[in-house]
Amino acid sequence: MHEIVHAVPQDWAASAHVDIDDYHSLYRRSVEDPAGFWAEQAQRLDWIKPFTVVKNTSFAPGAVSIRWFEDGTLNVAANCLDRHLETRGDKVAILWEGDDPSESRAITYRELHAEVCRFANVLKKLGVEKGDRVTIYLPMIPEAAMAMLACARIGAIHSVVFGGFSPDSLAGRIGDCHSTLVITADEGLRGGKKVPLKHNTDLALAKTIGDEKVLVIRRTGAEVAMHAGRDYWYHEVSAEVSADCPPAEMNAEDPLFILYTSGSTGRPKGVLHTTAGYLLHAAMTHEIVFDLKEDDIFWCTADVGWVTGHTYIVYGPLANGATSVMFEGVPNYPSNSRFWQVVDKHKVTIFHTAPTAIRALMQSGDEPVKVASRASLRLLGSVGEPINPEAWEWYYRVVGDGRCPIVDTWWQTETGGVLITPFPGATPLKPGSASWPFFGVQPGIVDSEGRLLEGACEGNLVLLDSWPGQMRTVYGDHERFEQTYFSAYKNMYFTGDGCRRDADGYYWITGRVDDVINVSGHRMGTAEVESALVAHQNVSEAAVVGYPHDIKGQGIYAYVTLMAGVEPSDALRKELVGWVRKEIGPIASPDLVQFAPGLPKTRSGKIMRRILRKIAEDEFSALGDISTLADPAVVEDLIANRQNRR
Ligand code: WT7
Record's Pfam families (predicted)? Predict the structure, then answer.
């Protein structure tokens, strides 16, 4: 196959922060002298007390420990707000676009600073102290960013929970880190539909220990139940506090936030990020990967409920004094032109979204794109899942009119910020490849025995040394942290992704190699969906796998064995889908449910997921060896009743 390569445009090579020579020299320096390199880069931040130690990290079995700049002190909110006041006080920090196209708000750095200080005083008034956990369950409104920054200002640890999660999922996350305060809104608004966030919070709090307070932001004005002594309106409490709140002096390694993410097994893990390393990585990647310039209008379409929203809507852009667009709505409301109309309305210059959105919009053709000029755009980004070359080319040719480079950025909740990416002024672009390691990042590809492979190869992606934005631990469970990321391959961080490196040294992420599936760029543990299914009274056993889905990237395929005497039916299938939606949230809804009288198991009772994956992919001619199955006959029934016929 002939490989397409888009050369670096000349003006980009000349004007970008990093050109090809810079890339090679800086990269070499970053891995040969990490302490020197990162000490220099850390000057991007304003320190209260400068650090003397740069890097103190170990991936050694049983002794994994990650510390950066460990004796320095600083405050994240001061870095995102106070230090810009003198030079950028009147610059727009957050450019908010409502779900309804007639609603928008421009908040300057000065205004954001004042509101965050006020918000921080509200938190204090409700008893929140340094080190306390605060759960944030909000729609995409500026108050979500304000709440995060207010926590950072007083040293509280935020845990943002995506507004699409169910009351049960919310309760689990509040309980796991013992949050003492939940910040929510009366309702959210997405695509013209209302999301009952306060009501969901009430349901969640019926399942927690019960000492939490609730702070409610008024968004839609809907009437909601307020429990005296537990629930407080933000607008009422904030009227009683001052807009003066000095930032707390935080150690570089004090926790900044927890963000729950799905893994292969068990319940979601609380990924813990700390103060200095995370912020440095967020700021630096945001500037260099997106080639940020002072006048850019940067729009990342993620939700703040995911790490992409944390790093590239809030912390990276604000640390850099940029204008960050925050969008409450969805790509297809009121029409499929919405993204491009918002681009024109706010003169967006850098646009960053997920492949699933591109694929969905691509389906309705070029017309909805062409109604907008998109003349302001100069750079496009992609994140969250592999982007297929067809979608890449459409994004490049139609959305970007062939003049905007695309940065396909690979990273994870655990990595804090981008680790593998093209550099727009340096990297000839290969559609579908995340390309090159960021500074200080040392990727490796290992075979199944853990041997590092050289040159062009394919295997599992590992990282050989630490970087400042790396997660520090699983909240409350350091052993699980070591077990999950450092036990597969000795002295290496295992990403869970498969990867190919080509002869030019480009990295091509091939997708998860564990029991994690990536649905529309959202990470889902198959075990979580399985445990939701078996909690249904009619289900005796369930096995969930991913399968290729044209728009979502991967869809959720559930094999369900019913209790004896329960008859399979379409109505029951529907009920089970609705059940999972209610248990976890809409993002976990199975796309296909197959009733299976038996699952393929080894004689020791282990489900052979490889076979289930193949059948779900409609590739059952290549099932491999099934002779070790306890009952090979179940496979015939599974094939005969498969739900995905392509
Ligand atoms: C997983 C991490 C990156 C923040 C949002 C998702 C997949 C992410 C890419 C990409 C191919 C990608 C990986 C990764 N992924 N970006 N550019 N190309 N795959 O964060 O929810 O923690 O998921 O998303 O499989 O492991 P996340």
Answer: ACAS_N, AMP-binding, AMP-binding_C
